[in-house]
Amino acid sequence: MLEQLLHLDQDVFQVINGQWNNAFLDLVLPWMRNKYNWIPAYILLAVVLVYRYKAKGVLAIFALIACVALTDTLSHRVIKKQVERPRPCKTLDPESGEIRLLINCGSGYSFTSNHASNHFGIAAFLFFLFGSVLPGWRWLLFIWAGIIAWAQVYVGVHYPLDVLAGALLGTIIGWLCAWLFSKYGRFRPVKKHV
Questions:
Q1: Are 121 and 170 spatial neighbours (Cβ–Cβ below 8 Å)?
Q2: Which residues contact 106 (CB under 8 A, 6 or more apart)?
Q3: 158 neighbors 110 (Cβ within 8 angstroms)
Q4: pTM for the whole thing?
Q5: What pLDDT score was predicted for residue 78?
Q6: Is the pLDDT of residue 193 over 60?
Q7: Rounded to whole angstroms, how far apart are CA atoms 100 and 13?
């Protein structure tokens, strides 16, 4: 069963990385998955939280940082060290056309994807904590995280199961952090008109 699942995972990787590509995605997806490109958005989020919620907004920022620290630590230091799955860019040969590697392969193991777990952790935290404030827009958070996770497969550094497991891990931790913060931090965001 596990062998069949891994074989299917590799087949889906070949489709996403090797067949579903074009020049536009080759340009956009490596940019999307670069965590440093999102720093202005994170700063804007912090400013909005502090402006609208004052001290509680500062606490929400620290809760979100703790959430990402937890997703990153569990993914990188616990799961990856136990599973030790090599990245596709470490085992497949770009010269023979087995993989299209669009970025530096990086070090470390593949399962689970830290990019997926961290970004889905952020998305879930914000989704569950601020869902009542942004009901029509909150689903964009998961679309954003999903594009970043998909980009990891597209550029050749993760298999699809790596990002799916990372997305599940991040969503669970993001929900848990939002629930704990709303319960024990007594944080109840309300819609404010500026």
A1: yes
A2: 87, 89, 157
A3: yes
A4: 0.91
A5: 96
A6: no
A7: 11
